[in-house]
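Narrative summary of target 7.
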Amino acid sequence: MTKTVIIGANHAGIAAANTLLDNFADQEVVLIDRNTNLSYLGCGTALWVGRQIEDYHGLFYTKKEDFEAKGAKIWMETVVDNVDFTEKVVTGTTKDGEKVVESYDKLILATGSRPISPKVPGNDLEGLHFLKLFQEGQAVDKEISKDSVKTVAVIGAGYIGVEIAEAAKRRGKKVLLFDAAGRSLPSYYDKWFTDDMDQNLADHGIELHFGELVREYKGTTRVEAVVSDSGEYPVDMVINAIGFGPNAELGKDHLELFANGAYLVDRHQQTSDPAVYAVGDCATIYSNALQKTTYIALASNAVRSGIVAGFNVGGKVVESEGVQGSNGISIFGLNLVSTGLSVEAAEKNGLAVSYVDHEALQRPAFMEHNAQVKIRIVYETESRRIVGAQLASTEDISMAIHMFSLAIAKSVTIDELKLTDLFFLPHFNEPYNYITQAALKAK
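Modeled conformation, tokenized:
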């Protein structure tokens, strides 16, 4: 038997464990997690807080007993204190103070990420919240449910910040959304798209404070005001959604790290120590758009990295296909989806790119149910390979982004896309599909 210890039992760790347990009979699997629960879909927190879904129970897709039924040992509410990489031993402590000692043949680190906490005066006041764990979602929901909480400040206008701002607004709160950047969602979308989202947020009553860096939280014991570059704003509650960084504490002195401190792994999810693999938000990933190793923290990437690690640890060599960082967001009925690189992100990474924009109806004009669609396709100027795409509409245009994801993975050129076979039916699209029309604009 080969004994594999997995530290961290959320999406990446779960995927690795299931891959080992479902495919390899010679595996002894041990999972260790500090939390009370596992498999929480944090992307659903805003839906629950905003009461777009009835409760949180559906946000869990597995439980401890499911792994025990497959023959795994699982330690919950257990903190790993140390990993002896030379002797291959993991030691930890349970919530009751019991010492846990587990040796391993192979180790999978799935320790995830940690929210970035601004080191500003007043960051220890009551009423300040983060959003990652289930318990943090519970705490935010409990606070927002109080009549005394009338004004909510959200710090950070990335995906989580924008989503929780919408949720708070749906609960009848006054919402102030802050970001040091000049617009929302700058990591995934160019300004042509975020202008629409910013207007959408403003139209729904969210007070935008972009280009404002938060300098201080004021209050006696509880937060009473947010101080930014531009002024002081009274608030009853603050939700920090600035972003996340890799949680690589356990192996930082032993394993090779990426520039941002994540574990550096190869296409098999193997670290610089052959017995140790790293998956999910604590590890790097290969970007097909950039054609090099990078860091993209998404649950979809975490699951795939866990599957790859599981197969390789089990003895079947599987290489990661790489990722595009495909993502989407839906706020007050406006849907944005993207994959690969925006123009801004490409240029920031030193890629010389060109792009085409197109705006058209989803369906022929004679169709009563209709909406505008915006599309941008980004391609490398010299090679003409597609490296990114963005779409926006009040229609559900999400499935189109999967085609672009595959195009990036397979290095499809903008010229090949021009004549790609795309079907037409009035119920779904125009005769000249907006994807075709956009591609044809590329000179």
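The CA atoms of residues 8 and 111 lie 5 Å apart.
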